[in-house]
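Lab manual, section 2.4: Encoding a predicted structure.

Procedure: take the sequence of the chain (268 residues), apply the prediction step described in section 2.3, and record the output as structure tokens. A sample record is shown.
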Amino acid sequence: MKNLFFIGLLFIIYACQANTSQAISAEAQDYEVQSQSVSSDSLMVNIQKKIYDTFVSTMMSQKNQALLDLNKELTTLHKEKKQNLILYWQAYLHYYNSIYYLKTQDKGNAEKQIDAGIELLEDMENKNSEDYALLAMLQSFSMQFKSGVKAPFISKNVESNAQKAEKLDAANIRAYYVQASNDYYTPAQYGGGQKAEKLLLKAVSLPEQSIKSPYLPSWGKEEAYEMLTKLYIKAEKWEEAKKYYQDGIAAYPNSYVISQLATKLVGK
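Recorded output:
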């Protein structure tokens, strides 16, 4: 009965999406252009690293005031500049704030933070490839807070937005990583596990950024190496697992998420 229920549910989702598919804006915002406008503001220099480093410090102190303060600074800057790029980084910060609350056993605030990030991106006009990729990632993360009935709907939204990211920029590594992650974590009985390997191989073949910039996103490649290695470990494809572990640790020698997989490869 459960299988029939979910099959019926998935059919409804596909039907709804066919009837209400959203057109991708031809006026998607160019973040390379926007980054020139914010280049005079030191807050935006290496903003991805600033958010992550602030997150790490909050986890060590078990107080997230620094993340909240950084969000206030971005909010103030957006009031002045009115640019999607600033909203993007606010949504990214909400993601890490959600992780903080989740790690400190506050699921209520964790859900509120991830929902706030999703709302920023959903309400954003003229979304570009990066916006859709981040939206898909946040939606995927939000599934753990939602009821089982909602999960298939969210999963299809994740897939749809990640595909929009790819359509807008076929060289965007994050578009492939998010699609792979969604497939990797989807149970096999619901069609998961069929595309992750191909998508991850594509992701690790791409540069972090098409054009190097301290204002633009670079996340995804380290995570892709980790997931690809885990995929091969799970499949007991040891030569492939060792190859991509070695490639990943060579590219990211200080990576905790990749290095922790070493023990699973000993003697293989």
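Check your result against the sample. Residues 84-103 form the longest helix (20 residues).
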